[in-house]
């Protein structure tokens, strides 16, 4: 039995009890919450495993987000910061003309994206990051920066300089102080901190014109 099954049982008793859920298989990212002090997805968290470690299960909404009701939080800041990294391939639009063509990629170039594209936007990482709590309107946060690095690493993308110039300030990236909570809280075993460190190096090289 998963934690989400218990949440549904509670909802049966109290229909006003509110939480987000959709796929129930760890894919959509809608049921991120704090479970016994650690962020995770209710749909893939086994009650049996939780009870092995602790006699009771305490569930709270994601930390650092405005609570709308029960376990439902306001994700607006999270998605606003995500939009700031332009989460799509930027085309070569020299002369204002977007070339329509296939985006062919070699196997080795494709392999560079491994570990960078599996984010399901559950916000478990951002919610566990103190830098996000204090700079929610300025620091992009681990989820957005992981995806930013995914596009900076993609040889089909033509927006590298644009992306780096946009990230070049003291908040968007450099507010990451390597606290590493983002790694331990990611239910997809991704490593946002490694991506952030790579972006920092790119930004420093960009600043010193070493690219
Ligand atoms: S490593 Fe950076 S992004 Fe990750 S939790 Fe720490 S400060 Fe936040
Ligand atoms: S990096 Fe991991 S924890 Fe963060 S939003 Fe993506 S899937 Fe969730
Ligand atoms: S319900 Fe979709 S990830 Fe849990």
Automatic annotation (TrEMBL):
Cofactor section: [2Fe-2S] cluster; [3Fe-4S] cluster; [4Fe-4S] cluster
Protein name: Succinate dehydrogenase iron-sulfur subunit
Entry EC no(s): 1.3.5.1
UniProt pathway: Carbohydrate metabolism; tricarboxylic acid cycle; fumarate from succinate (bacterial route): step 1/1
Classification via InterPro entries: 2Fe-2S_ferredoxin-like_sf (IPR036010), 4Fe4S_Fe-S-bd (IPR017896), 4Fe4S_Fe_S_CS (IPR017900), Beta-grasp_dom_sf (IPR012675), Helical_ferredxn (IPR009051), SDH/FRD_Iron-Sulfur (IPR050573), Succ_DH/fum_Rdtase_Fe-S (IPR004489), Succ_DH/fum_Rdtase_N (IPR025192)
Catalysed reaction, written as an equation: a quinone + succinate = fumarate + a quinol
A Pfam family hit: Fer2_3
NCBIfam families linked to this entry: dhsB, PRK05950.1
4Fe-4S ferredoxin-type domain span: 118-187
GO BP terms in the entry: respiratory electron transport chain; tricarboxylic acid cycle
Keyword Iron attributed: yes
Similarity comment text for this entry: Belongs to the succinate dehydrogenase/fumarate reductase iron-sulfur protein family.
Assigned keywords, A-Z: 2Fe-2S, 3Fe-4S, 4Fe-4S, Electron transport, Iron, Iron-sulfur, Metal-binding, Oxidoreductase, Transport, Tricarboxylic acid cycle
Domain of life: Bacteria
GO molecular function, one term: metal ion binding
Residues of the Succinate dehydogenase/fumarate reductase N-terminal domain: 2-79
Cited Gene3D superfamilies: 3.10.20.30, Alpha-helical ferredoxin
């Amino acid at each position: 039995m998963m934690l989400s099954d218990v949440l549904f049982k509670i909802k049966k008793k109290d229909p006003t009890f509110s939480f987000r859920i959709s796929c129930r298989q760890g894919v959509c990212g809608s049921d991120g919450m704090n479970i016994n002090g650690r962020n995770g997805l209710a749909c893939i968290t086994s009650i049996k495993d939780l009870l092995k470690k602790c006699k009771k299960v305490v569930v709270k909404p994601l930390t650092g987000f405005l609570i709308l009701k029960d376990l439902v939080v306001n994700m607006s800041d999270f998605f606003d910061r995500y939009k700031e990294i332009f989460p799509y391939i930027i085309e070569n639009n020299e002369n204002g003309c977007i070339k329509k063509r296939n985006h062919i990629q070699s196997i080795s170039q494709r392999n560079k994206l491994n570990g960078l594209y599996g984010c399901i936007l559950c916000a478990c990482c951002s919610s566990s990051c103190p830098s996000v709590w204090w700079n929610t309107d300025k620091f992009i946060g681990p989820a957005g920066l992981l995806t930013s690095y995914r596009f900076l690493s993609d040889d089909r993308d033509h927006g590298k300089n644009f992306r780096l110039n946009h990230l070049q300030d003291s908040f968007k990236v450099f507010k990451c102080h390597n606290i590493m909570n983002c790694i331990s809280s990611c239910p997809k075993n991704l490593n946002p901190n490694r991506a952030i460190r790579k972006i920092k190096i790119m930004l420093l090289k960009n600043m010193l014109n070493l690219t």
